[in-house]
Amino acid sequence: MSAETEPTPQIPRDTGTTREVIRLDQVTKRFGDNTVLDQLNFTVDAGKHVTLIGPSGSGKTTILRLLMTLVQPDEGIITVDGEQLYPAPEKQVREVRKKIGMVFQQFNLFPNMKVLRNVTEAPVTVLGMSKDEAEARARELLELVGLADKCDAYPTHLSGGQQQRVAIARALAMRPQVLLLDEVTSALDPELVAGVLDVLRDIAHSTDITMLCVTHEMSFARDISDQVLMFDSGRVIESGSPEKLFGDPDHERTREFLSTIL
Amino acid sequence: MNWNWTTLKDFLPSFWDGLLVTLQALLLGSLIAFALGLFWALAQRSRLKVVSWPVTAFTEFIRNTPLLVQLFFIFYVLPEWGLTLSALTTGVVGLGLHYSTYTAEVYRAGIDGVPAGQWEAATALSLPRSRTWTAVILPQALRRVVPALGNYVIAMLKDSPMLMTIGVLEMLGEARQFGSQTFHMNEPIVLVGIAFILIAYPASLLLRALERRLVR
Q1: A243 to chain B, minimum CA–CA distance in Å?
Q2: CATH number of A20-99+176-261
Q3: DSSP β-ladder status, A178-182 and A75-80
Q4: How far apart are CA A229 and CA A241, in angstroms?
Q5: B153-196 pLDDT, tens per residue?
Q6: In this predicted model, what pLDDT tens digit does every residue of A18-59 receive, in sequence order?
Q7: pLDDT confidence of residue A6
Q8: A120: chain B residues, CB-CB within 8 Å
Q9: A68–B contact, CB cutoff 8 A
């Protein structure tokens, strides 16, 4: 029996309908006496690219870590794609978490595994993909990030920029709905930053993945973001389009912050 | 000093027997120490207090009492409770058990030395906890601990003559037996001493080379 191959329907990026993929309700996180997030509310719609900016210690990275379940909130509700991530029983947390991927400042590749296995490990053991399928897909992803020739290298033999691109491929291999980017270029030598940002730009423009991004690269943020949130002392003090926020911010604090980093 | 090459030659057959027993005790004792030590290290990290607390108490107890007392306990006291082990088995179990409490500390340090980012990456990829241990954490931790484990094997080698006290004819035991039968002590004791350094010193050089390769 011959399978009829239908062309994959192209889903337009803007269908007019919006679907909330991330929702934080009254989320508070304290470290000791320090309140990092203070009754925070915010939502992100599917397919949107949201950049979080603000001074260090303002809680941006904590939001990503909460969504990745690396830390737990003290109060509040976190919902991902309509399912509760916190509070939730552990089994549910494990399921919901699969919708989210994260790229770290320090790459955090597994140094005991070759590049290809870094990318295939989770699809095989978590998604139950066959080894062949996972490897074929990993090679595609490594090609996408420009590292098709590095499959058999160990991470320590790669430059920081190359390691970070592998980390991006590794996160995408799990087919997450949401990609969290935590200062992904901060640990890189200046000349390696562009290569990583180009890859991310590519992904932002060619997929419908939702991105939540903490960065100090303002031109990159302007380039890919649909929305920019300005954080200060655990609260969102201003949000809007990149044009508005970078061009003509309403808030004095935002203006001050932007003047220090631009 | 009285030295007679013929005496040395007469001792050789017993010496080879003793060497074999020493290496046997060392090999089996090491295997027990490696496996049991890892078990202790993992059990001590258990979130269940009923697991971690007794294991911590037991390993502290073993580490802080002399090996010789433990050997005598296994050999002379345990039979009272119906557990009789041969001298060599007692030696192997005693060495392995005693040193497992040291290797447990080595493993613990190795596991703690794996950066937090590795756990976080495993969580971000939704790897199950068991898989995180076997595929990510332990391979990295074990690589770091190989030199330290090797040092304990050398220490164990140097403690192996204690097995003589419960009647195991390892190298020194053979030497003493030969001496008491022939009244020639010099040759066998010197040979045994040389044998120890011929094993231990190259082994420690090997470990140093290994350390340079593994720990970067």
Answers
A1: 32
A2: 3.40.50.300
A3: unpaired
A4: 9
A5: 999 999 999 999 999 999 999 999 999 999 999 999 999 999 99
A6: 889 999 999 999 999 999 999 999 899 999 999 999 998 888
A7: 46
A8: none
A9: yes
Q: Is pLDDT above 50 for A8?
A: no
Nearest to B73, CA basis, from B101, B48, B98: B98
Please tell me the distance from the alpha carbon of residue B133 to that of residue B101, in angstroms, as a whole number.
Answer: 21
A209 residue type, one letter: I
pTM of this prediction? 0.87
**B103–chain A nearest CA distance, Å:** 22
Please answer yes or no on whether A108 and B135 come within 8 Å at the CB atom: no
- List of domains in chain B: 5-214 (1.10.3720.10)
What residue segments make up the domains of chain A, in order of their start? 20-99+176-261, 115-175
CB contact under 8 A, A70 and B126: no
Q: Which two tokens stand for residue A177?
A: 């709905």
Tokens of B66: 């002399």
Residues of B in contact with A80 (CB under 8 A): none
ipTM for the complex? 0.90
